[in-house]
Design a protein that fits this description.
The complex is a heterodimer of chains A (335) and B (267). Chain A is of the alpha/beta class and 335 residues long. Chain A contains eight helices and 16 strands. Chain A is globular. Chain B has two domains: 2-220, HUPs (Rossmann fold, 3-Layer(aba) Sandwich), CATH 3.40.50.620; 237-267, no CATH class. At the A-B interface, helix 3, helix 4, strand 5, strand 7 and strand 8 of A face helix 3, helix 4, strand 9, strand 10 and strand 11 of B.
Amino acid sequence: MEAKTKDLWVFIETNDDGTAKNVGLELLGAGRGLAEKQGGKLVGVVIGNSADEAVKSATAFGADTVIVVDGKEYGHYTTDAYAKAMYTLVEKYGPTSILIGATNNGRDLGPRLSCRLKTGLTADCTSLAIDEESGNVAWTRPAFGGNLMATILCPDNRPQIGTVRPGVFKKADIDETRKAEVIKEDIHVSANEIRTELLEIIHEAAGELVDLEGAEIIVSGGRGVGGPEGFKPIKELAAVLGATVGASRAAVDAGWIGHSHQVGQTGKTVGPKLYIACGISGAIQHVAGMSSSKTIIAINKDETAPIFNVADYAIVGDLFEILPILTAEIKKLKA
Amino acid sequence: MNMLVCIKQVPDTTEIRIDPVKNTLIRDGVPSIVNPFDAYALELAARIKDTDPSAKIVLLSMGPEQAKVALKECLAVGGDKAYLVTDRCFGGSDTLATSYILSSAIKNIEEIEGKFDIIFCGKQAIDGDTAQVGPEIAEHLGYPQVTYAIEASVVDGKVKVKKEVEEGFEIIGSKMPCLVTVTKPNFDPRYPSIKSKMAANRAEIGVIVCDDMPNIDRERIGLKGSPTKVKKTFTPPVKSGGAKIHEDSNEATAKKLFATLVADGII
C-alpha cells in the first residue's frame, strides 16, 4: 500500500491492567529523531482495555498524537484481535513507518501484520537510522547468533515495519505537562473472530519470576558453578543487587537450573545495565544472548576463557571465594 | 491427526568464526544441522503421535537439494513423509516471499496428504533469527497461531498449548487448523534408532518445484517478491580489552573488584 502520511507510529503494548509496557515508551524516545527526519508526526498507537494510563504515558513520553483502540477484547493479547485492530488502523491512516517492541507479543503481532499488509518487516532491531541516500528507515539487527549485523531497507513498500529489542533505547524525560491529540477509534472484534482462548495463566511466584528481558541486572552461572548447589552464591549476590538469575546452556542442560533462566541463542536475549557472568566460558551461543549488555563483569578461573573478550571487567579467580566477599561488601554498602 | 512440521537446514552458528584479518564470517567447513527449534517442533508433534498412533507427521523444507539430508535426519526421528520445495527462482526470498512459497507448497501437499490439522514450525531459525516465517505462513493460510510453545496436546478437538511469556507461561486453546511455533522445551528431542535411520536413508523425498504450483504468483517470490533488501552486513565491533583484576588471593581480587565497581559508579 501507499503511505498516506509521513507519520511514524509506535505500537504501545499494554499490560492487562491498561498500563503501558516500557518498551513502547522507549520506542517513542527512539522514534522522535526518525519522525523528524521523515518530516512527519510521532504517533503512539495504544491498544488495550481501559487503557487511559497508557495514553497518558504515551503523551508524557513524547507522542504528538495518540490513537487509542479500547475494548474488553484487548485486555489480554490475542493475535487475532490485535492484528485486526492494527490492520484496520494502518489501512485508514497509512503511516510510513511502524516500530513495535520485540516482546513475545510484538514478535507474534509483527509478522502477522506485515504479511497482511504485504510489506517488509525487520525483526529484533538493535539500531535505527534514516538511510541518507533513500530516506528509508535503516533497520540494523544481529543475525547468525550475533556473529553478523545486517542493515535492512524496505524501499518500495509501505509501511516499513520493524520490531525493536527492549532495553536498547532510552525513554525521553517524562513531561506530564505535554499535550497530545488523542484519537479514539472504535474497532471491535467479535468473540468468534478470536480463534484462540486463554485457558490458564501460570505466572511464576514472586521471587521465582524470571524476567530476564526486563532485568536491569543479571547474575548468571555456567558450567563453572559445578552443580545445582553452586547457584547458591549466585542467588545471594542477585538478591543483594535486586538482580535476576541467569544461566548458560551448559548449566541448564545439566539440569542445575530451569530453562527459563537460560541466556543465549536457544534461551533469552538480554541487554541489562549490568551482566555478571560467573563460571561461564563464553561460548558464542551464550555471548550472542548477552553481548549487548551495557557493562559486563566476568568471573572465571581460566584466564584464557573467551568470555573475557567481551567483558568490561575480567576477574580471574574462584567464584566460590569471590562472590561471598563481594556480596558481603555490597550488603555493608547498602546497609 | 494430520500434522506438518517445517524444517530448515541451517549452518551450525556455534561453529562460525570471524576471520580476524578480513573481519568477515568464515562459513567454509561449517557443518549444516537441522535448526534446533525445528527439532523441538518435531518433538512436540512426535509426542502427539505417541498418544495417537494413527496420527501422521509430514515434513517440509525449502532449500537446495542438500536440505534432503536434514529431512532424512528428521524422518529418522519421527516423520512419515517428507517434501522439499526447491527452485532457483526462489533464491533471494525474504521471509514474506519464503512464507508465501511455503504456504503455496502446503496447499499442494495437502492434495496428496489431506488437510493438516496442526502446522508446527520452530520459533525461529538460528541463522536468520527472524521468527517471522511461522506467523507469516499462518497469515497466508488464514489460520490462527500460537507462538513460543513448549508443550502441545490435542484435547476435545482443540490444540492445547503451553506457551512461554515474559511473566511465566500461558495455556492457550486454539481451534484447528492452526500453526504453532515452538521454543526450547524442558526436554530433549528423541534420538533416531539405527533401524529408523536406515529406513530414512532409503525414503523417497517428494520434490516440489515452482512449475508444480501453477497458481503461484511469480511476482511474489525470489528477490522480486521480497520487500526487504539487505543494504549491508558487517561484523559487530569487538569490545576492546576490559580491565583485568587478578590479585594474589581471591579475597584481594574480590575486594579490588568491589572497590573498582564503586569507584566506577557501577554499584
